[in-house]
Design a protein that fits this description.
Blueprint lengths: L5 E5 L3 H12 L3 E6 L2 H7 L5 E4 L5 H6 L7 E4 L5 H13 L4 E6 L2 H9 L4 E4 H14 L3 E6 L4 E7 L9 H4 L1 H5 L1 E13 L5 E8 L12 E7 H8 L2
Parallel strand pairs: 1-2, 1-4, 2-3, 4-5, 5-6
Antiparallel strand pairs: 7-8, 8-11, 9-10, 9-11
Length: 230
């Protein structure tokens, strides 16, 4: 059995706290760090360890028990100086992989220059996703997998209903792969009442697409744009 990975999350605002919650839910070890005593006290029951640390202070960070940390997430985007200093000090401590949150392209550039292995611009990514949804309301969500490839969650177009992916020739004609279908089903409980629940299907060539399905399509951004213009 592989060992649990150890994460440090620095900065416990809404962004940092949500990362802690997801990581703990996945069974990881999470050390949460902040310089606000009230925040540390509030989160300590929800993580593996919660530490009161000023990560912009070199002595304070050197004393923090980070020897076994595999990944550190710097969630201090709103405080640029603290974000940059913390990222730099974590790299100096030899943390193998540092993920840092940025709030602007310039901030992201600085973080990369001082050694951040990965930079997340949450505001920019969220803005792009909202804009794509407004321009293309049939696209419920979009997850960029690289600069050129995305996984889009879409409503079912009318001309898809009652057909299979094989009949539609999605890959040959549209250069998109149908990787999953979210489908609502209704079961009856012991009293005969209908209970709605959602299933995630992994379709094969015989799976018939239904009107209320949500489709997860994988492909290049150009292929997605062409699909939306059909």
């Amino acid at each position: 059995m592989s060992r649990k990975r150890n994460f440090a999350v620095i900065g416990l605002g809404a962004f940092g706290a949500s990362i802690c919650d997801v990581l703990m839910g996945k069974g990881a070890n999470v050390v949460a760090m902040d310089r606000d005593p009230a925040i540390v006290e509030q989160i300590k029951a929800s993580v593996s360890a919660a530490l009161l640390v000023d990560t912009t202070n070199e002595d304070s960070l050197l004393r923090a028990p980070l020897e076994d940390i595999d990944v550190a997430i710097v969630a201090l985007g709103d405080n640029l100086e603290a974000s940059i200093l913390t990222t730099m000090l974590l790299k100096q401590r030899g943390i193998p992989y540092v993920v840092a949150r940025a709030v602007s392209p310039l901030h992201a550039s600085v973080l990369r220059r001082i050694g951040a292995n990965e930079v997340i611009n949450v505001e920019e990514e969220t803005g792009r996703r909202v804009a794509r949804r407004l321009v293309a309301p049939d696209v419920l969500d979009s997850l960029p997998l690289s600069a050129d490839v995305s996984l889009n969650e879409c409503l079912t177009p009318k001309f898809f209903i009652g057909k299979t992916a094989a009949e539609l020739e999605l890959e040959a004609k549209l250069h998109l792969r149908l990787v999953a279908i979210a489908r609502v089903a209704v079961d009856l409980d012991d009293s005969g009442n209908g209970i709605r629940h959602e299933r995630l299907l992994f379709p094969d060539d015989t799976t018939i697409i239904e009107e209320a399905d949500r489709l997860f399509l994988l492909g290049s951004n150009a292929a997605h744009d062409e699909f939306l213009n059909i």
